[in-house]
UniProtKB/TrEMBL annotation:
InterPro entries for the chain: Alpha/beta_knot_MTases, tRNA_m1G_MeTrfase_C_sf, tRNA_m1G_MeTrfase_TrmD, tRNA_m1G_MTases_N, tRNA_MeTrfase_TRMD/TRM10
SUPFAM superfamilies: alpha/beta knot
Main location: cytoplasm
Organism: Paenochrobactrum glaciei
Lineage: Bacteria, Pseudomonadati, Pseudomonadota, Alphaproteobacteria, Hyphomicrobiales
Identification of the protein by name: tRNA (guanine-N(1)-)-methyltransferase
Domain tRNA methyltransferase TRMD/TRM10-type: start-end pairs: 8-226
Amino acid sequence: MTLKKFQASVLTLYPEMFPGPLGVSLAGKALNEAKWSLETVQIRDFAEDKHRMVDDTPSGGGAGMVMKADVVARAIDSVADHRPKLLMSPRGKPLTQKRVRELAAGDGAIIMCGRFEGLDERVIESRELEEISIGDYILSGGETAAIVLLDAIVRLLPGVMGNQESGETESFETGLLEHPHYTRPQVWEGRSIPEILTSGNHGAIDKWRRAQAEEITKTRRPDLWEAFKGHKK
């Protein structure tokens, strides 16, 4: 059976930013092996005036510029199909591993990278863009966020990670942050690997790792810990 290939279309004013980090390591190897595809769409190509303007002053006044609805809509429509249409935005829903897995299970995504003060609200509404945030901070544009999103997705595609179990035990996959990791040498700068990890008792090791994951989550991310406890009930 031939597996479906994940197809990413990125709408941007800076196509030269891609593939960037997506062209190396796991994502780059998978791209070269055609396990996923990446196309960039230059939004400016869809401006119809002689100056190829993609932005204008905000209605009602204020600082900065706003990306024009008509130009952005034409860019989106040029690649629109059944794939989800995403907008990288600081006001979007926080990206979760659950949403990443949902996207990785699909055929691909159309990703809009905003610039300036953002997009005209009308194009967000009319094209039903799903706004996604990668954190509570501001970037210069959506391109970096799109790279983060695609990196998270691509590593979950079939055949990309050599050890699938590795992806299933990482932070957020179980609702907990990941347990600590150790490797040789046995003693480094006077610090030893915990004895339990060299005991050969895999049941005890699993129990220790679980306890460590719970304690780290409780201490560092009480929000995740509360959600985890609520999910267990």
